[in-house]
């Protein structure tokens, strides 16, 4: 073989390798869907994010402001890039990645601001109550090797070769702090599960619904010739899973006619038909993007997005608010939490803890304070400090109590004096079945619900409530709670959901 032939072969091999590498990179990028506004803007012009199956939790700007796409945040450059795991993998953002510091909050000098009627709560770090100060800001460590470094038993690499660690030198501001509190930096660096592929990752949590609904239907449909009795059983299975009479009839009618007309034989074909029918019944084209992105750049005159979280007692409002804050922070957004649940002191503390964990400021009022004024204060504060999103957690209230429902209406109206409410998320407990539907109707009347969060789907065999709620209200289920863990909140994706049900 001549030298030129050898050279040609080598060149050809190199070209093939280069193509393979490029294709690999492109494919790995496709497996991961980012939450960035940029992508949404590219794929779904105008307003309303481009929700699509297989994506992470989709975020978008609310209706009113419409057009303005928030500026690209540096976070986009730091995470979910090459080498990161993709959908379904047990992935996590590396601890050492750069992230936005805590929001700019005033530090209390003395006793906690629990007495004023609407005090601004500063996220204190971990357990150390006394020094709310520096811990939060990792930047609090000035570039100088100076004091903090010597004392920092916990994190700061005691080595004198100091210049290496001070990651993001920031305003030295409080020289007072003798030593940075220990757990803080760690806490702030808390890892947040990637938002993409969560439904796939958490699909095992739907096992109860899968065995009753998914496996039940597959078993019946796959049994061969279906007589009237079999169809009744199919209907019963759907009803037991809380799909409701109307959806049940619609689904069985369609299955009957399609089975007859398509002449399906194999179990795979039947399964594919069932998938198609169930997905169609879930309104795959509904807009499920959570409108939690700001209108323009808040740092440049834009307005924060405002999200109101409502529902009856114990459905998971506070937990969902906290989980959503994490999703936003993971997306590089700054968040302020408004604790408008002034009934239950524990709820405020619970929210404050969520705030600490993501470095979000919490605005709270005294127990018994007017929730509307706390919500108003939160939105004002959020605008003043130019956060991207204000999440307001409201008190649980029975939909049957007129006075409490009026109060909720007032909360929304008062907030609207200060800012547009972009999203009203109704949190429903999936285990409560039909009652959830009644709640949804009443809440929708009072505050014009724009999206539903169905929680505790992990503990029920009645996952079919999703179908019914959407059908009855015409409001999309946007998020589902699949556990008590901080990242057990997933976007609702009809295809992935049905796949999880069918096992
Ligand atoms: N299994 C499971 N538990 C959940 C989920 N979401 C919330 N919870 C739990 O439900 C309980 C109530 O949650 P909260 O967030 O306090 O509910 P809330 O609606 O704020 O309660 P009130 O303020 O009293 O109305 C807590 O124990 C949560 O951990 C979920 O998706 N799955």
Automatic annotation (TrEMBL):
Biased composition annotated in UniProt, kind: Pro residues: 135-146
Classification via SUPFAM superfamilies: Domain of the SRP/SRP receptor G-proteins (SSF47364), P-loop containing nucleoside triphosphate hydrolases (SSF52540)
Catalytic activity: GTP + H2O = GDP + phosphate + H(+)
Gene that specifies this protein: ftsY
Compositional bias ranges of the Low complexity kind: 154-174
GO molecular function: GTP binding; GTPase activity; signal recognition particle binding
Keyword terms of this UniProt record: Cell membrane, Cytoplasm, GTP-binding, Hydrolase, Membrane, Nucleotide-binding, Receptor, Transmembrane, Transmembrane helix
GO annotation, cellular component aspect: cytoplasm; plasma membrane
Protein name (Swiss-Prot/TrEMBL): Signal recognition particle receptor FtsY
Gene3D superfamilies: P-loop containing nucleotide triphosphate hydrolases, Signal recognition particle SRP54, nucleotide-binding domain
A Pfam family this chain is assigned to: SRP54_N
Composition bias, Acidic residues: 184-193
Residue segments, region Disordered: 34-210
Protein purpose: Involved in targeting and insertion of nascent membrane proteins into the cytoplasmic membrane. Acts as a receptor for the complex formed by the signal recognition particle (SRP) and the ribosome-nascent chain (RNC).
Record text on subunit structure and interactions: Part of the signal recognition particle protein translocation system, which is composed of SRP and FtsY.
């Amino acid at each position: 073989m001549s030298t030129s032939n050898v050279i040609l072969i080598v060149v050809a091999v190199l070209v093939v390798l280069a193509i393979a590498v490029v294709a690999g990179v492109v494919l790995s990028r496709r497996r991961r869907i980012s939450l960035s506004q940029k992508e949404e803007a590219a794929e779904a012009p105008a307003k309303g994010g481009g929700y699509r199956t297989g994506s992470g939790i989709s975020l978008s700007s609310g209706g009113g402001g419409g057009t303005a796409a928030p500026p690209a945040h540096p976070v986009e450059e730091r995470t979910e890039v090459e080498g990161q795991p993709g959908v379904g993998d047990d992935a996590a953002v590396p601890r050492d990645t750069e992230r936005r510091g805590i929001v700019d909050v005033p530090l209390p000098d003395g006793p906690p601001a629990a007495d004023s009627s609407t005090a601004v709560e500063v996220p204190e770090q971990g357990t150390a109550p006394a020094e709310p100060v520096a811990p939060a800001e990792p930047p609090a460590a000035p570039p100088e090797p100076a004091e903090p470094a010597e004392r920092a038993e916990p994190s700061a690499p005691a080595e004198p070769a100091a210049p290496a660690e001070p990651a993001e030198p920031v305003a030295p501001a409080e020289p007072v702090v003798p030593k940075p509190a220990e757990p803080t930096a760690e806490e702030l660096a808390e890892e947040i599960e990637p938002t993409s592929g969560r439904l796939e990752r958490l699909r095992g949590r739907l096992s109860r619904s899968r065995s009753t609904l998914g496996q039940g239907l597959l078993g019946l449909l796959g049994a061969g010739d279906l007589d009237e009795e079999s169809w009744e059983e199919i209907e019963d299975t759907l009803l037991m899973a809380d799909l409701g009479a109307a959806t049940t009839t619609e689904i069985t009618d369609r299955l009957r006619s399609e089975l007859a007309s398509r002449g399906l034989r194999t179990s795979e074909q039947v399964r594919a038909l069932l998938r198609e029918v169930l997905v169609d019944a879930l309104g795959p084209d509904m807009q499920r993007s959570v409108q939690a992105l700001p209108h323009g750049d808040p740092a440049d005159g834009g307005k924060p997005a405002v999200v109101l979280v409502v529902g009856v007692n114990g459905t998971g409002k506070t937990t969902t608010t906290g989980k959503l804050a994490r999703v936003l922070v993971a997306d590089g957004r700054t968040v302020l939490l408004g604790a408008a649940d002034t009934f239950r002191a524990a709820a405020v503390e619970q929210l404050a803890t969520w705030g600490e964990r993501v470095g979000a400021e919490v605005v709270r009022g005294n127990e018994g304070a007017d929730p509307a004024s706390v919500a108003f204060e939160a939105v004002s504060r959020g605008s003043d400090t130019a956060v991207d999103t204000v999440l307001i957690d409201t008190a649980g209230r029975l939909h049957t109590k007129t006075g409490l429902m009026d109060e909720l209406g007032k909360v929304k109206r008062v907030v609207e004096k200060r800012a547009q409410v972009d999203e009203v998320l109704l949190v429903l407990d999936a285990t409560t079945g039909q009652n959830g539907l009644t709640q949804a109707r009443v809440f929708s009347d009072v505050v014009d619900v724009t999206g539903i969060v169905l929680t505790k789907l992990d503990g029920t065999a009645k996952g079919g409530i999703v179908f019914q709620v959407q059908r009855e209200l015409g409001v999309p289920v946007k998020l589902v709670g699949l556990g008590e863990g901080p990242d057990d909140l997933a976007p609702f994706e009809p295809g992935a959901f049905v796949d999880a049900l069918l096992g």
